[in-house]
Amino acid sequence: MSTTFNVMTPEPDNVFEPDLQSVLYNSYAYLHPRRPVWRIQVQGRLYSDRAASLTQRLLLRGLERKLKLTPQQAQGELFRSRVAGFMTSPEGGLRIQLQHDGQLLKLRSTSKSSGLFQGRLDIPRDRFDSSQASIPISTWGDFRSTEGRIFLAGASGISVISDIDDTIKLTEVTSRSRMLARTFLEDFVPIQGMAEVYQRWAQQGGLFHYVSSSPWQIYGPLQEYLTTQGFPEGTMHLKWFRLRDEFLKRWRIIRRKGKAGVIAAMIKRMPYRRFLLVGDSGERDPEIYAKIARRFPYQVVGCLIRDLQERPVDGPRFDTLKKKFGLVPFSLFREPNEIMDTLEKTQGTN
To answer: Rg (Cα) of the chain, in Å, rounded?
Structure first.
């Protein structure tokens, strides 16, 4: 369900606790195919910075032991910033109000028990046009407000859907211990050359959507990483992870909503846009992208996979992909300069 855009006198619907905070994740708006409106996809989270619960503190101690942290590392600014999102208290059951250009907008759904909220808003098409790259939008109420950006996806054009881990940021997902260390303990390390490729694509009209298995709880550090490393701004689509006893016993993350579903929904909402999918061979990007390309053959113009030596798309794996999904616009690369001209070539064939 959607909420229309109305001029209203801002009046909070909820009485929030003073320590309640909000975060809005960068998202996108697209032109509705049958109605004269922009449809905005909204996503964010409400939480409190109250003292961590006993369960959270125990989980934090378990993480510190797993990473074999020294007391200095455990109290260090980097580690604390990475785990901060896991230590907050979610606020569920609250209705969300947003503000743009002096106008108040309300989501029909309330925040979930995880504190996450999502919904859609319809804004008249003449309110702004596709020549604008993005618009600001902010939460509003009796709590600490935050601003996010909504990127405008015109009816036509090309969107780049990019993975993050081991595609544009070194994570070493094939090694669980290294993945945890790079996620919680070490400075993020860029894949050299990828920012330059993406900046070139952005100059050629590409709109970026970062879709990853990384947790929403480290959205802030990831957003800072994209900015400081010179990657184009874009929407962010991560996963919500819950830390439970199983996480400590098996170091397994309980995930919600698959990457394939997020990407498919995006493509389906924008039937006249073309999509270039970029990922790596470390997890299941080749299989996910091949399936999506087969489902949307007229929209997916290419699948670029950074081929990792630790888990390459070798002969047997490629044969399995071909047998299961047929011919797909698939390309492997080891160095970013190999794909520098991809967007230009793609546009030249249309």
So the answer is: 21
C-alpha torsion sign, points 243, 247, 251, 253: negative
Here the tokens at position 339 are 């794909």
C-alpha to C-alpha distance for 50 and 181, rounded to whole angstroms: 26
Q: Which amino acid is at 204?
A: Q
The Cα–Cα gap between 256 and 128 comes to 34
The pTM of the full predicted model, rounded to 2 decimals, is: 0.89
- What is the dihedral sign for C-alpha 205, 211, 217, 218? negative
What is the token pair recorded at 88?
A: 């907050």
- pLDDT per residue as tens, the chain (350 positions): 444 444 344 444 444 455 788 899 999 999 988 899 999 999 999 998 787 788 888 888 888 888 899 999 999 999 999 999 888 888 899 888 898 888 888 898 899 988 999 999 999 988 887 678 999 999 887 767 789 999 999 989 999 999 999 999 999 988 988 998 999 999 999 999 999 999 999 999 999 999 998 888 899 999 999 999 999 999 999 987 765 543 444 444 434 457 899 999 999 999 999 999 999 999 899 999 999 999 999 999 999 999 999 999 988 888 888 888 887 778 999 999 999 999 988 876 55
Encoding tokens for residue 276?
């270039």
Buried b (16+ CB within 10 A) or exposed e, 22-56: bbbbbbbbbbbeeeebbbbbbbbbbbbeeebeeeb
